[in-house]
Amino acid sequence: MTALLDATGLxxxxxxxxxxGATPADWAAAAALDPGxxxxxxxxxxxxxxxxVADPGGGGWTLIDAGVGPAEGPGAPWCPVPGRLPxxxxxxxxxxxxxxxxxxxxxxxxHTGWAADAAGRPFFPDARYAVQSAETAALDRSDxxxxxxxxxxxxxxxxxxxxxxxxxxxGVTLLPTPGHTPGHQSVLVERADGRDVLVTGDLxxxxxxxxxxxxxxxxxxxxxxxxxSREKLLxxxxxxxxxxxxxHLTRPFVDLPEAAAGSGTEA
Length: 267
Known about the structure:
By secondary structure, the protein is α/β, with parallel strands linked by helices. It is 24% helix and 25% strand. The protein is globular, with a radius of gyration of 17 Å.
């Protein structure tokens, strides 16, 4: 399992504005957990990350999330575009044609940018794109992700809408974790040669929510549901001894029992 850093940038709100319920103690703990997120004058520095999961035995790949995308994509108004995902895949030896599944944790522009191109073609031509049906049902038709992602993938027969927990293949299971968006999902990757990994998507967007899972993010659609989903997923990680794979923390993999320690780019 490889972390692919599509982009890094400053958020359009300060960290304290994005998480108004956090206490000074929460911020101190968050800074210790993820010091790289502390930008100048209280700015929030965050990564925009995807994950590639190799099939057992090799030969194919599952990609989890599709990054910020190109300069002309839906993320352009606020994301640090263009992202680097195409070059990162090449550097990792992953051909786009070998990606058979793309999991979209949710339909925000910073997670869907490389799902398609400006001509409406699936960026990964042979992949099915797995998303919760509750997510597509809740997406406003005027949202640019609708025309950039949902419409062209449906037209190409590539959109795979699932309902609830869903086993994509042995070792990869989609877990509904609503709240950030109505159909947000996380991903459990079970590894025979190591510890399980839970890919959090935007259930956990900043280390302050790792230090204090009850802290709400200003852009959660349903903060109470998001909190319950976050607490449940973190409890599951502790119970399984799983590592967290994070989209926006400046450390891709977080070991909960040793959360203050460093980590690499592969798990």
